[in-house]
Amino acid sequence: MDDCFLKRPEAGDEDAVKEMLQTWRAYGGRMNPGLLRRFDGDYPRWLKLLDNQHRGIDTGEDPAQTLFLLKREDGAVLGAVSLRHALTRSNWLDGGHVGYGIRPEFRGQGYGNRILRLAVEKLAEMGVKRVLVTCDSDNEASRCVIQKTGGVLENHTQDEDGVAIDRYWIDSER
Question: How many CA atoms lie within 13 A of 116 on its CB side?
Fold first, then answer.
């Protein structure tokens, strides 16, 4: 697990990203983070979109955000995480600073814990002292990952679609 790291997608990751997305779609369910869902098959255009998101260009009312891949030294892409540089009203309620997901075939192996710990470290480097992480209330696996990473439950609420949400804060300076 120590051979895992976060890295922004680059041109050489195209095949690994496409394989990850194909596996994820075949598995079904919601794909997180949302920037993965924005991939339309044109990898260079998607990289440009990610760069614009990182720099806060053409984000509308959304904050700048940076997508990282969770990679192993052997080049395998295990998951992805999107870090929102700031909170807006919308992601204050649902989404928080972090949106993460692990490829279905790698779930239950501790990679969720690893990606969230690395994400909190990156946010600390960006100056975010308290990290808001949310999950659907019925997502036991994500709740366990958040709590294991130091998440303290603030409250239970609902998103705009009426989905029950749990909101946690993680102190990035611990």
Answer: 30
